[in-house]
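Practice problem 4.
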């Protein structure tokens, strides 16, 4: 059963959503989710451990039908031209507009990957005009970056 629990904070936005399965999202439930996103600005949909990349992308397209083929480095925009994605992300053959972003092993056959891949993790050093020093990085400092 669809349940919205607003986050109680001074920020004044955010909610948790429970009781839906994004892999099997019917139109009435999607409309409730869409209403919650617009009302609370940020939602966490709980219980999605079995969410597939295909279903994740289908949800994105329901929110924005024009997104098909323009994110994730496919179609008209190539993500690799904007940032050095090869070190920290990989495409998923099952859903080419979805990428795994992170650090560590992505095993062969993970949603259709053809071979084991080790992601080195991302860094801003290659594209910021004044990157953080090794001392700042070791201290846990970070820089904002945009990628979508």
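Answer key:
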């Amino acid at each position: 059963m669809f349940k919205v629990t607003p986050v109680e904070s001074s920020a004044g936005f955010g909610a948790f959503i429970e009781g839906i399965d994004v892999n099997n999202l019917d139109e009435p439930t999607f409309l409730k989710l869409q209403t919650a996103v617009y009302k609370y600005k940020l939602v966490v949909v709980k219980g999605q451990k079995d969410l597939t990349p295909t279903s994740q992308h289908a949800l994105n397209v329901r929110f924005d039908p024009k997104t098909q083929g323009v994110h994730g480095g496919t179609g008209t925009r190539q993500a690799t031209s904007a940032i050095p994605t090869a070190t920290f992300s990989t495409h998923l053959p099952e859903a080419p507009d979805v990428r795994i972003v992170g650090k560590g092993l992505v095993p062969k056959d993970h949603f259709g990957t053809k071979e084991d891949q080790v992601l080195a993790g991302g860094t801003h050093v290659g594209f910021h005009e004044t990157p953080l020093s090794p001392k700042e990085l070791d201290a846990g400092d970070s820089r904002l970056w945009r990628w979508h």
